[in-house]
Amino acid sequence: MDNNLILSFETSCDETSVAVIKNGSEILSNIVATQIKSHQRFGGVVPEVASRHHIEQITGCVEDALARASVTYDDLDAVAVTYGPGLVGALLIGVTAAKTIAWAHGLPLVPVNHIAGHIYGARLVKPIEFPAMALVVSGGHTELVYMPEEGKFEIIGETRDDAAGEAYDKIGRVLSINYPAGKEVDELAHQGKDTFNFPRAMDDDSNFDFSFSGLKSAFINTVHHADQIHESLSREDLAASFQQAVVDVLADKTKRALREFPVNQLILAGGVAANRGLRERLTDELTAFKDTELVLVPLSLCGDNAAMIGSAGEMLYRQGVRADATLNADPSLEF
Ligand code: KG4
Ligand code: ZN
């Protein structure tokens, strides 16, 4: 199975993406058609709008992915696709496209979990060394995933309410920042100071779970109260205080997890893994964990993309994981 070529699909949210991946680690092409502009005026992703865009984009993305990789369907070894978790109507477009191509060209079909995909984005930088831990932080997920060996994923901690990215997007709205707000809040945070001392929920609990809805409410209440008494607050300090609270909890829980589950690598993945504050903090903290290497998914692969799905898909393909034409989208798929 050397030199295997995987055509992969990702349509779980608001990016239509198709990639060609060689041996699970080399990106021959990675086409990402983003729909962000269509969702911005609604302040978040509108599922029906996302599905319609996926339908319009997917065929062109497949053609571009094959052309840019200079391969044809005959060169491919398998087709991999995200089948959950995500928006059901959005997932269905990728699943249907992948099933159709697999059936038409007699190729094996490999079903991929979106979170496994985010984690395997790391493999596009360097081989994953097990046991490994992943902190996956995105608009829909905040999870600590322990991987004792290849193909095994154990969620040891997760958010009890909002995902970290969701909290960024919601407080961004209060600061009049367009969706998705994470990047701009991150930039503002670097110009301010942590002066508001927002709550760090569950930070002292001995589990690995997170909670961000109290922080979000504290932020929103602070701004509304100031509006009522016509006080003006520093946007930079608000952003810095919010970011510090998020990063503190993520870093503290991750350190606790690393103490209980010693690993060779800590992988930081998901859209919020692009956060400068979080990358810097984990880089600092990991100096105390001499046997654990920090693997930061590159900024260009933190957001949703099909390259990461092809990388996880290749691992599953080697492990013999297959789906048939009955494969369905599973919006609340777990490991
Ligand atoms: O993984 P992703 O592309 O989509 C999901 O699967 O959710 O993550 C998107 C999320 C959004 O909430 C966005 O605001 C956030 O990632 N994000 C950031 C940064 N860049 C993107 N959050 C904080 N800091 C950033 N630099
Ligand atoms: Zn994602």
Q: How would you characterize the overall build of this protein?
A:
The protein has 335 residues and is α/β, with parallel strands linked by helices. It folds into two domains: 5-120 and 302-318, ATPase, nucleotide binding domain (Nucleotidyltransferase, domain 5); 127-296, ATPase, nucleotide binding domain (Nucleotidyltransferase, domain 5, 2-Layer Sandwich), CATH 3.30.420.40. It contains ten helices and ten strands. It has helices at 36-40, 47-69, 88-104, 114-120, 164-174, 182-189, 213-228, 235-260, 276-285, 306-318, and strands at 5-10, 15-22, 26-34, 78-84, 109-113, 132-137, 142-147, 154-158, 265-269, 293-296. Strands 3-2-1-4-5 form a five-stranded mixed β-sheet, sandwiched between helices. A hairpin with a 4-residue loop joins strand 1 and strand 2. Helix 5 packs parallel to helix 7 and helix 6 (182-189) crosses helix 8. The radius of gyration is 20 Å and the shape is globular. The model has no long low-confidence stretch (mean pLDDT 96). It binds 5'-O-[(R)-(carboxyoxy)(hydroxy)phosphoryl]adenosine and zinc ion. The site of zinc ion (ZN) has 6 residues, from helix 4.
